Fold each of these.
Amino acid sequence: MITAQLLPASHPTLRFDGTIGYTIEGDVAQLNADLAVLDQQSLQEQQYALQLWACTEPFSGTALHGTKIAEIPVATDQASHIDAQALALLPAGRQDYTMVMALTGTDTQGAIQLHDYTIFNNRQLFSQPQLEGRIDCQLHDDRAQITIEAIANPRASDNLSGSLSLELWALDAPYEGGAFCGFELARTDLGTLNGGCEWRDSQFNLPLAQLPAGDARSLVLMLREWTPAGYLTRDYRSLQTLAASTAEVTAVAAPEAAASTESPAEAAAELPAAETAEASATVEGVVAEAVAAAAEAEQPPAAQQETAAETATEERSAAEELDVATLDVAAEVQTEPAPAVKVEEIRKVGPAKAVAAVSINEATLNELTAVKGLSKRVADAIVESRPFASVDELTKVRGIGARMLAKLRDLLTL
């Protein structure tokens, strides 16, 4: 959720003229608009874009507060009619929004100008997988115990969700949707969920990453869904503030905690057009590839690369909010998540069996990740910090403290 300040163009070169509309089907937005050129000579001086916004506050023509759902580059040689697709990056939560179509231009200095806009009369409510009822989260030493009254998919009965994941994050600031900066504490894959169905009274006992020393953090539980753009946040609950030095804390969300509007692609729609001026018509090819790839597989195959959420660290920032039309998003579209584990399967998991010690200097990333208590993020950090002279040097790795090392010592070797 961001606020974009748009400066009204002093000499507009384009404006809406005729039909303006949009449709959203799954993860694809179709934008169309008839345009009129007001100043042909000045047309080449800017790069233009057609943007669709879901706004939480009224739009007066200057400040857009909300989520940029989609953006289409407008080629100056085709500036009479636009009808194109882009990935739809929907806001998380369950509130309804005022929908705004904006026609923007970016000059050579990077300044964004608003040439025209229209506000649609009907407010938009997005139907997405969601968290329902009471949520209880207790952190004990190296485990997170989470109880959720219901996880539901309110879509049509024939609309199977993408692979869902439940993620617990400690963020630097209260979460309002979109991109975020923080530290992943725990996560688990849930699998897919049929439309009109829900999982009731779900309980999870998850490995808990050690929180780095620092200021107090905002604790957030996110429900994320795999899409052609990677994992996107569909719903979330903000829990109580978590102090970095706290070893145990109980955080409870109200039954209907307020939730509003999140992979680089998820946050891409929240950057002003000046940050993405190099976007081009390749977006249609990106979308076509993404939709085709999604259709070929009923469920994401085995993990070959981490999703944007799993590779995010405390250094994740708005800088990763790249435009959906860039080649970076094309690369993200082709990444796939780890195989899903259904909730019913998670409940049946018993104590881990003893395993042979794993070499911290020679083991593969997958072998390290298989060690109980080592998250993918921490395993990545171990690989990047090699070689080690002793197992004790693991305390230099971000995310591993003395207490965590004591629990892992029998499972690791040089």
Amino acid sequence: MVDVKLFAGTNTGVLASKIADYYGEPLGDLKVNKFSDGEMQTVIQESVRGSYVFFIQSTTAPSDNLMELLLMIDSAKRASAGYITAVIPYFGYARQDRKDKPRVPISAKMIANVLEAAGADRIVTMDLHADQIQGFFDIPVDHLKGEAIFMPFLAEQDMSNVIFASPDVGGVKRARSFAKYFQRDLVICDKVRKVANKVESMTVIGEVKGADVILVDDLVDTAGTLCKAAQAILDKGANSVKALATHPVLSGNAYENIDNSVLEALYVTDTIPLKQKSKKIKVLSCAKLFSKAIRNTHEFKSISALFVEK
């Protein structure tokens, strides 16, 4: 059997350690040197010749995290690694997946090109902002679902009075999968946004009176949309509002917005480490799911076996 080597990027060290523990192998020895001007150099301190190498790194802001991942991949490629997989729990720039106005980049496609050019043979990620981003790659992409973490958790709760909601029209498919699995109703929040990260108005489509509503999204950034959706739902007569979001980007005033909102709780995963604590934010780990995906990749087993059956 070919050796498996797991390496952690600087930004995802805690999650990578958990993944390695579940997998049963220690993290490999990798050092990141920085010159005084901020330039980075990644040094793999052990042989990877012929090995299956997995680099675990979320490409969150700042862009150093992406650059570090690219350098790690290049280091392994030049060290004759047998097969290189970039494990990217949170795939940054995924919101820029189309040209929606003149003279803008399709950044998600550009990042895909760069990862391939660096030498990645496979990508493992979770809850891309848009499923079609998988098609931007000409190498295999294993797209894991946060449902595999959230659905078993919710199954242990009382779901008798729950209605699922999408905070915007774009997330309907994601929220519908939860509604279908638990055989509950679905409502939609229609938002009007004139500039990025600022919601002008919110309309709830559907009946929520007396219900316990769970908002479902792939990521939460400034939390503006999520908090406004929660308020609009409560104003329409809901009993309570909670939320699920796979990726806790949480930039700007996000923590303050959440703490001051009507949300009872926000459940997220640890694809991105939290910058600070909040009584309302609860973290469910995705480490076990990624460790299984890594093992199945190495042992040529099914990845879809890790999905929740609906």
